Amino acid sequence: MNLASWVERNGRRLRERPAVAEGERLVHTWGDLAGRVAALAGGLRGELGLAEGTRVAIVMRNRPEYLVAQYAAWHAGLVAVPVNARLHRDEIAFVLADSGTEVVVTDEEHLDDVGSLMGEVGSLRTVLLALGEDWDRLLASEPLDLVDRAPDDPAWLFYTSGTTGRPKGATLTHRNLLMASLSYFADIDPVQPSDSIVHAAPLSHGAGLYGLPHVARGAVSVMPEPGGFGGAELLALSERWPGMSFFAAPIMVKRLAADPVLAGAELPGLKTIVYGGAPMYLADLERALEAFGPRLAQIYGQGETPMTITALSKADHADRDHPRWRERVSGVGSPRTDVEVRVVDVDGRALPAGEVGEVVVRGDVVMTGYWERPEATADTLRGGWLSTGDVGSFDDDGYLTLRDRSKDLIISGGMNIYPREVEEVLLTHADVTAAAVVGRHDDEWGEAVVAFVVLAEGAGLDREALDRTCTERIARYKRPKEYVVLDALPTNNYGKVLKRELRERFADDER
How many domains is the chain partitioned into structurally? Predict the structure, then answer.
């Protein structure tokens, strides 16, 4: 079982149909894409001498070469490591080192950062610039026959983080990704070769995962033009590419719904907007439904079970006559076809409807474990069930509502931010003796990062200095938007910081 067989099959069956586009411009037909994938795979195994199972990282913005690199890695029997290109250089270095990556495919925008890691990351042997001379030479290689892979062979290392803030690579197999794709057909949308998907969010995360079922069915993958995805481009693309879907964080859906360019627009080619990864506030959802009609579907998932736990279908969104419609659309829907989902107590016993507990899930879509982290794997996969760390409850009809996150994850602009990594950076500043980071509601970003800090005696708050400390070590989007000085952080009898009390300081503003 090799996911790259989809590209090879489409290259024969749909040879002249569009496969990859950039904006309104067609870049590759399926025949062309299949040829490039097989040739690059030949170069990776031949000229670069990569053995089966070697990790190949991709650090680049969404562009046609991304898909060529990803499917070539699979075609060659290698493991893809898609890396969020917005990460700080040091964060990228950690992912490459932790995964034992030997080759990185990158673009001009990220070449300086990635290239500087040669010699620093011990496993890294080659940095391949897409559209450079080496790239062109590898694309001229003898095409490689598709390498057979077992269903449980790793395909994608999806780097996520826990409450420690240290990234972990969720090992997703070919079977995991196949099941996620089949579940998309069952619960979200059927897909036809005449359809399209716009990659408005990073391919290293949700957008890349939702691209899989579209590649499987031979739809065209559309990369937005650089510079941001807004109402004008959505309107133009909906007129150019029929049957169009895209995945977006709720904050992006909110922005598009409010874009005056789209006011009254029919968006003839738009089929589905899949949103997820952060809470969608009811008022925002109602405005989005007014703007786009019943084209919205919500998913709840994690990298460990690739975006596949529950779904709120387009039909659920459209069913306004249901007596509990507002309650339902404030939740995350019902379990997906390919998984079992339970709410359990602290002893792992399933709880009845209405009772709150931890959400756990099992099925063939769940990761095999964290890359070379057996203790973290054992802690998360218990008795065959994945512990999500999220707290929720089912209603009598089997719809799940998330009540809280047991992990302190902050989601700002659709990007995951883990407080401890921000706190650790802040504590490197000489003026900071204690720090606690939480998220607060933000109309523009969904959530904003707020840092509560205790300063050294005699020190004053220097926001610019703290900002510099953060941007020197972590991605800019993780930097706090606000600093609040306290005499001491609230703690319990065991010395644990009570972040709930910090969040409650903003409760009045969020109501």
Answer: 2
